[in-house]
Design a protein that fits this description.
Length: 411
Amino acid sequence: MKKAEIILEKTICICVCSILLLASGCGSPGREVQKNTRQGTAPETGREKPAGTLRQDTAQDESPALRDEPPVLQDQLKLPGHIKKQLSDKIQVDAQVQNRLEGCSQLYEYEAAYRILDGKQLQDIFFPQEEATKEEDSENNSYRCETVDGSQYAYSNEMTVSYHRKADQGYGKVLSFCTDSRRMYPDSFDTLDLPEQLSFMDGEEAKRIVRETAEKMEITLAPEPYVFAPLDEKALKKLYRGTYKQLAAEVSAEWADEVVHKYLAGVEFDGDKGCYYMLWQQQCPHGGLILSNNYVDNGRVTHSLGSFVMGIVNERGLASFYVIYYYEFQGESPVTEQLIGVEEALQKVAELYQTLPLTEEICIRKITLSYVVETDGRASGACKLVPAWCVETAGDNYRQYVVNAVNGAIL
């Protein structure tokens, strides 16, 4: 069993990271999954501000003295809701503009490190009342804790913290493979007719369970999840069928037998009351949401994922909990410079594309201002969170470009 569970952890990591060779995208938060998939609603931040134009767009008309003094942050954070223009001969912009820093009175650059929980910490968070065994793998810098009766286990390494109730692992197994690994967001949700809520518990109670677990880990979540899906028996069975076929076709030969024929074998949802599946963005200490999607440093070996929290809740409570990159904030310095504006960020992307042999026109569909992780030149496990623009293209040749909003560097 432990071999299969280790394969589960490694396989989930492979699925989540499979797109890291691409620069990839930002999910669109919303209240319900129906709204997320069909309308692309931005996450609630507790405040709404009117759309506007960035002050730096007109800074060239001001005197040098005024340009030396950054505008009020609130003015810089007033973004147009949509931009449509021809950026160059081959680049069209028809993009929704989303602001994940709205409501911040001050922006910061944060020094942080990836945090790893040891066996005792895992037990205290996920099953404090249970007797448990603990294992440490010093070679891989990881820890595992399992209840003596074998019903629950938790795992932590430099990339993830995860918890699973073994009787309910079928949910995670199916959802891990049917997701779009750029966003940990199942495209197949678009085809499901999902209920508003499930019979055993209302959605708000399910959210509360996930929030409380995050609080034990000192993680501050966004006010609402950016994916919230009440998956009933019918939906789970449909996801399972699609996942099995996808795995059989796509998993490499060395994994095919172990993953397809053994990993998913025995997963059944007959009579299952369903589960709530939700994804959350993490929030920085002074507000502002962290990019929830994958991206890589430009041309470098080092890379970083955006950070998010996944929770699955069923009639027995928390079934699975999963954190991609668990940050420990260690220092901060206020951003005093004027932010790079959205137009300047687009120009940075256009300049990058001038070095590429474009044969077909590309279209930029989404632009997001949020905190992202910068790892260049830092010790293993150390990182820096900075305000940045995330620019996504559309179509099969999907790309995401991340532009540091403080110094203009393309990450």
